[in-house]
Each structure stands twice: as C-alpha cells, then as structure tokens.
TrEMBL record, chains A, B:
This is diphosphomevalonate decarboxylase. Belongs to the diphosphomevalonate decarboxylase family. GO terms for molecular function: ATP binding; diphosphomevalonate decarboxylase activity. It comes from Weissella kandleri. Pfam families: MDD_C, MVD-like_N. The keyword Disulfide bond does not apply.
Amino acid sequence: MAAYTARAHTNIALLKYWGKADAQLILPTTTSISLTLNEFYTETTVEFDEQLPHDQIILNGRVLKAHERQKIERFLDLVRQLAGIKTYARMVSINHVPTAAGLASSASAFAALAGAASAAAHMSLDPSDLSRLARQGSGSASRSIFGGFVQWDRGTDSNNSVAHSLKDPVDWPIQLITVIVSDQPKAVDSRSGMQNAFSNSPYYQAWVQHTNNSVPAMQAAIANYDLDTLGRLAEQNALEMHAQNMVANPPFNYLTDTSWGLIKMVQTLREQGLSVYATMDAGPNVKIISRPQDTEAIMTQLQQTYPDLKTQIATPGPGIQIWEEV
Amino acid sequence: MAAYTARAHTNIALLKYWGKADAQLILPTTTSISLTLNEFYTETTVEFDEQLPHDQIILNGRVLKAHERQKIERFLDLVRQLAGIKTYARMVSINHVPTAAGLASSASAFAALAGAASAAAHMSLDPSDLSRLARQGSGSASRSIFGGFVQWDRGTDSNNSVAHSLKDPVDWPIQLITVIVSDQPKAVDSRSGMQNAFSNSPYYQAWVQHTNNSVPAMQAAIANYDLDTLGRLAEQNALEMHAQNMVANPPFNYLTDTSWGLIKMVQTLREQGLSVYATMDAGPNVKIISRPQDTEAIMTQLQQTYPDLKTQIATPGPGIQIWEEV
C-alpha cells in the first residue's frame, strides 16, 4: 500500500479546552476556539506494510520502543478498525514544533497522524471526519485539521463533537508572540491536570459556563476584526482556567513569578494604548496576542523587563495538507 | 480625663474576610472564623485632653503628621460621637507585631484603639459593643476583641455584624508557623484587593458561598478537636480566596513561586503523615497550621527546602485587656 504524508499545524486556543465530559471519546466540557499557527507543524508519513511484525514508529529520527508506542498504536488500531484492515504501519514523523516554543505538539502530531494514516489506509475522509478522528488521539488535534480561526463544538456524541473553520485564511493582522519562560517539561501534564480540575476544582463549573457563554462574543470578535474583544475574552478565559487549577485537589499552578511579571507587562503596554493580550496554556510561557505592527514596541518593553527571555513569533496558518509519496 | 490602655492581639483567619457587602459600615460578605494569637499584639493608650488643639498620635514612638492621622482621627470622631464629647485625644500606640511576621497589624491596632478610646471616653462597652466599634476601624479588628477561636457573623446591619467567642481558652494543641517569604509591603493592599475581587472577579460569589457554607463544619472541627478538618477547610478557603483574585480586573496575585513551593512542602509533609495545613492572607507568606509536637519535623523539612527563610511561631492568645493608667 502507498505511503502518504500529512502536514498539520499546531494551534493556540483563545477559548480553552480543559476537561473531558467523556474521557473515552474525548468529548470536551467546553466549546473551544483557536488560531492555527503557520510556523509550527508536524509532518508525518504512514505506510501500511504486510511485512511488519508490529507498528514501527520513528519520531524525530528515533525508533520508539514498545512501551513508548502504546498511545500511537492505539490510534493506529482505531484507523485499522475504521478501514477494516489488520496490517501494521510504518510511521515516520518530524515535529517542527520546538519544545522551546512552549506550544503543545500533540495537536499537530495527532492531526497529521490522522491525515496520513487514514489516507494510507485508503479511507477518503473529509475534513470533518478527519477532525473527529484526530480528536480521539488528542482533543486539540481536532482543531488542527483546519486553518485560521477554528471552533471545536463540544457536542454530545462522537459525531457532533467536531471542529469547523470560522475564518480561513485570516484576512486581518494578528500574531502571537510566545515568551519562553521555561522549556522544561511541565510538572503536571495536561491530561492529568484537566482531569484533576474537572473532578475536584470548586470553580470548574463556573469556568465551563463562562467559556461556553463566551463563544458567541468570540465568534463576533473574529467576524468583526475586533482584536481588543478577542484579546480580552482570551486573556480572561486563560486566567480563569489557571485560577481554578489552584483550587483543585491537590492544587496546582502553572504560572510562575515571571509569568505574572509578563502578564503585568502586557497590562502596562495596554495602558499605553497597545492592543496586546496574554494567554497561557498548561505551562508558564506567556503568549502575547498582538498586531504585527506593534512587535517592535512589545520587544523593546520585553528587552527592558526580561532581557534574557527568548521569544517566538507565530502568524495564522493553513489547514492540513495530505499527499501521496511517489 | 484619665488615660486608659488596651492590649489586643492579632488574629489569623481560618475562614477569611475578603470583601465588604457594606463599605461604609464594614459589613462583610462572609462570616469569618479566626484564631487570636498570643505572640503578636498592639498596646495603645488614649487620653482625652481639653488642652489639645487636635488629635495627637504617636505610633511606635513617632508623632504622625496631619495627613497620616486621618484614618485614626475618623475613628476617634466615631468614639467622640458615641460618647457625646468633643475633646481631642492623645494616643500612644506600640505595635508588637513585627512587620517581618507577615501578620496584619490593623486587627490588633483597631481593637486596642477601640478598647482604650472607649474606656478613656468613659463609655462602658461590653465585648460585643467593642467588637462592633472595632469593626468600623478595620473589619478583622472585630475578632481581635476575643481570645482563642472567634467567629465574626457577617450580619445584615451594624448591630448583628459582630464577633463572638467560639472557644477561649483553647484547650488543645494548635500553633501557627509563619514562614516569611517577604517582609516588603504588598503591591495590592487588602482594602483595594478585596474591593476589586468583590466588584470584578467572576469567581467571587462562589468563594463567598463556599466560605459561608463552611462555617458549620469549621465550628464542628473546633468543637471536636479535629485539626485535620480545620486545616483542610482553612487551606481550601485560602486557596479559593487567592484563586479568585487572579481573575479580578485587573488580575492580581499575592502568591509567589516560593509560596507555592511552601504549599507543596506542606502537602509533602501531610503525605508523610503529619497534620499540617497552609493558609495565606493578602501577601506571599505561608502560615503553617500544625501541632506543637510536629515543630521539629516541619523545621527540619523547611531547613532542607528553604534554608534562608525566617519563621515565627504563634500560639492561641487571649482577648482584649483594658486598664486605667495610674
């Protein structure tokens, strides 16, 4: 069977996914809205090969051992089940999402895997079906099938919990400056963090309600080219997500003193008239939502406040691309 | 008129006061429960003197200037109004609450002032009346009139928003180890912090509800000598208070990386079988609720984790004492 390659880009959530209403199917508690990013992506090639005694997975040039393959094997099992085949696969994947970028790579990784594996299994999935499939590898991967602004409807079953495009390509100037506070693996991984919040945080239900209630306003902000409303909603959503982690059991906290210093720096820049807003995922890095024309002013302030911190700039990116290797 | 001196001790809230339902009368949104502390107190002498052209305030040996006296003058005006006198007062106050202890001194300060000023004005106030009066200087001062475990009922008017004793003296072993993370003045003072939370935090109402709902369980824990329930409720209440500050407008945060390190150290000690719990007020210092018999184990762990941090140990203390100077 032929080898297929897929390239999928990572995304940053403006309204977050943080908790599963159904952990088996990965149905989220919130409808989330994200921006797919051009600069960071995963490229994955899959070929089903009758000769293989088991799945062979090569990640960033390294052959994974049996115990490291389990999550990907389970996902390939799902593809085989849908395609009605039993053949093992060779998967070669390269992550162009540097760890230091502070951006999750599982979104682009499982989106690319869904695209390459389904094509290699001769399934002809449309983007919605690809999104449903990718979701079952990693929730946020459902959004990385699409480019630009994307909404993942939380849904009530595996069919209607699916992402769709809100605006692609993005026809207005928006960028994300990630300030790297730490490139170390986080102490609490997303999966167990969101599970703890879901089960134990007394503020969790309020966060879910606020997130879902913010969806229409976020959609309108995107439709109206309104960076200030978009940024304000995103910053508020991120802070509420982090705040409720602090009261889970045990409590946990991704934001460090430097994260807070950056959040305050963003506030100060805003008081000076710039349209800049902060968002933070499951880690200490602060992502500054801003306009490209304000990059220099932001960088100057950052250089004064935190001269040692590295940054990465990302702009809106495209949806998944899939091709046959020849 | 004769000079009277009052000594009032500071207190630590186990269920917090953080926000005013009525800012004029200082009626709180929550019923709070505290422990009065033996080691930290304010001693204040007040004498009304016909010869004085204005109130004369000497705080820790320093004569306050006109603009520094305003809050105390307003409180003395309240006492004069209640007593039906117009005479100015000489007030000499010494705070035995070192700044570095990380404990608020306004509770003991306004409790002692209420006691000394009302006695000097020949008002014979019972503890409940003193509590109502002290409340109007600083909310938490209402609790410092009483010793041991104290409850301040939030109430609905100036009469029923008053503290009362839950248990005094405290007949079981409980102590508070304050770990001094910073002895600098806080960036956001309590008054404006709680006002911001009250007005702007989307989690504020949940915090108020959880606090008020925790009152019966905290009362039972105190009555039943149940340090673990008391500590668990106190730690949860403090974390929820801090979490909702993070989503006020603007967001603010008193807890630093070191505060979180100490919270985790307390968790670790608990996993090792010790009954230790953390609480934090409007600042980064962490107060460890514990048993005196566990002091050495806690100090050993602290010495290993944060060898440079200073500590202060406090035990249950008495209610206000008032005497005539002769």
